[in-house]
Amino acid sequence: MPDLSRPSGPRIIAIANQKGGVGKTTTTINLAAALVESGLRVLVVDLDPQGNASTGLGIEISDRNLTTYDLLIGETPLKDVIRTTGIEGLCIVPATVDLSSADIELIANERRSFLLHDALRQTDMDEYDWDYVLIDCPPSLNLLTVNAMIAAHSVLIPLQSEFFALEGVSQLMMTIRDVRQTANSELRIEGIVLTMYDKRNNLSQQVEQDARDNLGDLVFETKIPRNVRVSEAPSYALPVLQYDPNSQGAQAYRSLAVELIRRHQRLAA
Length: 269
Ligand code: ADP
Ligand code: MG
What we know:
Blueprint: E1 11-15, H1 24-37, E2 42-46, H2 52-56, H3 68-72, H4 78-81, E3 83-84, E4 90-93, H5 102-105, H6 115-119, H7 125-128, E5 132-136, H8 143-151, E6 154-160, H9 169-182, E7 188-197, H10 202-215, E8 219-225, H11 228-232, H12 240-243, H13 248-268
Parallel strand pairs: 1-5, 1-6, 2-4, 2-5, 6-7, 7-8
Antiparallel strand pairs: 3-4
Helix pairs in contact: 1-13
The structure holds adenosine-5'-diphosphate and magnesium ion.
Magnesium ion binds near residues 24 and 52.
């Protein structure tokens, strides 16, 4: 008898916010690294044509022959697009600018919104034994982001601790609701994480207060501080957890991973 008390396969989380520069990619890379550090196995899917997650995890452009584009549009099997990174237990499907034409190329494809869903449910997924799949979304609510939301169990929303941060969240929530009603009724909100938080800045505190008042328990207790080590790490093609393991940024992402894992243990209990 299979064990029905636990959902099989990895937990798939879309990291999304249609605003650019709010910390999606940084959160994807560093949350992945923190989960791996605690002994879990993680796949990152780079779904942004900018390919920042791929660069940040050390996959050179010249080394991206097969990418998310091939996975979605070329029907290339998952096993052929996965790359290992320098970190044991952490793999990535890299992206290049090719992916930016996906919207147009897929217009006539009836399953265009389900391509990532289908790709991540190929039978060879079972062989990899990942605990988490983190999808780094582009800064838009386009077909790629919808693919991520249909493929995922949940959406994790980074919220930059800046003026206008909450603007746009209601639009994002509406998109999540649409996806639930049409294609993925199980889609949950994993949580909202405050990024680039500066405790000396009143504005950061105000954004935190507004977020907690409006979004309640959805907001993670962990806040990611603005930390120069976090912004330096990608130019060394490393997560901050490797680049400067004792930095405040690294510690915050470890704490976010602990909170995330705890939430899931509670869900599974
Ligand atoms: P997005 O993927 O949402 O566009 P990024 O993760 O690329 O956003 O972050 C935007 C910029 O902010 C990047 O230059 C990144 O290095 C920087 N950044 C992100 N998080 C932090 C942080 N906690 N402290 C300092 N800089 C950060
Ligand atoms: Mg990004």
